[in-house]
Input
Amino acid sequence: MNSEKVIFAFFIVLALTLNFGFFLGGMDDPSHHNIYEFFAAIVVSLISTVLKVGDRTHLGAVFLATSLVADLQLLAAAVVWGFVSHVYGQELQGHALATVISLSGGALLANFISVILLVVDTMTVKR
Amino acid sequence: MPNLIYVLFRRLRSPLITLILVYAISMIGFVLIPGVDDQGKPWHMSFFHAFYFVSFMGTTIGFGEVPYAFTDAQRFWVMLTMYATVVAWLYCIGVLLSVFQDASFQRMLRANAFRRQVKHIREPFYIICGYGDTGAQLTHAISEEGILCVVIDINQDRINELEADDFRTFPISLCADVSLSQVLEDAGITHPWCKGIITLVNEDTVNLTVAVTAELLNPELRLISRAETPEAAANILSFGANEVINPFETFASRLALAIKSPSLYCLYEWMTSPKGMPLKEPPLPKKGLWILCGFGRFGHTIYEHLNVIEGITPRVIESERSVRDLPAASIIGRPTEASALLKAGVKDSVGIIAGTDNDANNLSIIMTAQELNHTLFRIARQNHEKNSHLFQSAHLEMLMQRGTIISNTIFAFIKTPMLSDFLHIVSRFNNDKANELLSRIIAVVYDGVPELWEICINQDKTPALYEVIKKQQVMLKEIIYGNSIADTKRARMTALPLFLKRGKGNVLLPEENRIVQENDRFLMCGTNEARQKMLLLLNNINLLESVLSGKEVPASWVYKKIRELSTN
Output
């Protein structure tokens, strides 16, 4: 067992699960979407990006790309959230809420691709 | 460049993760710990404010407690996270700085810059492997001509030396091992502007590796190599090298030539001398007994060459008893001592060759021998460039400087690639024929060594002549006499065509009445002034037409019209 591989897989899967957890719920109901979960999703996504940088293989490059996409989507969602609740001073609901959730949905897709790549990579390793 | 970013991020991985974690924990703390707003009501910091606060706290900017004054519980958390974030930042910056100072990272940075520079070259250039005495002389000579060099040496000290030197065209340099094909590729061996590769490394095996690499990667490329042994020379030649120069062999054959045919010797010396050197009287070594001190690679080569000349008896003095293949009648002893020299018969000999690999010994041999017999023809081998001054002051009849021989010869071949074929043919001349050629060359030069240049008749190099020969026949003498033809009094020949390459045929000393054709390549010889004039003539259509027709041709459209009207 390789502890580096464990940590790597852990963060990739955790990024997906947190993201999924946040995404799950009604598009118009703010109570279904926990801000702490969202924060954790961003942090884990950032960490998994840093873990992926520096791998020079082709697969590593794709890993990095999907991770960067997830970061971008999540950070965009965070900016929308922050802007609506602090600059406009409104509650997060309606159109703004839908935007945040759909952005995180995009990130979810990217994280999902990451996990698929991880599974494929694991399967192709010859024992 | 991508390599550098990968290395940088791999090294920064743990500091970056630390930074992200410290930020995340600090922010969570601020969001969870309850505070009060300005009216004393309980209030929770949002993620937005938490990120804002942690950002300016961690970077030690510190705007204060915003948006409301903190409670003591919050201040406890600030005290903890303040130190944590600052330490995380310092850790990050420390690692970043150490990566940039890392020797291997800097080497990568330099290699990257080198690769980029080479990639952007848009002019003809030569690759020079090895920047020792020879490499330095050659690089200076080439850059003096305004040609770009790419220099590679395995020793960083030598590259530093190069960077401290003055050049007209500053070379691009890198400290790397040329026996690695990747290095040669980075240096531009497959670059479309690369004109040739010159390998001057001390070790023959490395030169051979370069030759093999060049042959495999770019077989069309001109390759000039140095070799110290005949075996290596033959080997490198077999890999498609255009020219292999063995300094000992070159010098020994020149010496033999000086004895056998002084005129040919002169020809060789002049053709391969650096620009602007004064014409020197050829040394006239006599036949008889020659004393050869030292029987290493140099001594061996000299012996082989002298021994076959009729009337010359080379006698070897060697201090090492264990040297192999020592010829019969050799003397074992120290050549720096008078006793050994006397034993070898210095009083009856005509010349002495100090050919050991130690400069101090060589000078000492010459001094001692001169005291015993002041009529000797003295030849010494100089091993190190830094001793030049000493050898100059000894006023020797002939001096063997390895670096100078190689660099002069290679430089001549680079400047005028046809020269090597020309010299090849000339080497079969007898003394009378060589004498005749010599006197014809002297007629076109004043006091310096002749300037050699090539002209190639095509649209690119000589546009004016190319235009004209499509319309009318031009004889060789018309371009040689140049623009002095109008002035019949000064119609002295200032350039001598030495050699013509037309298709696959070679013509030695093409006659003046020969018709010039497209794609002819001429090797010309004369003064620098003649060269400038000729190049001007071949590139300027107005000048050329006025020279050919003998009258002024108007250059501008208006004058052409006026001339047409007035003639009609």
About this structure: The first helix of chain A runs from residue 3 to 23. Chain A is about 80% helix and 0% strand.
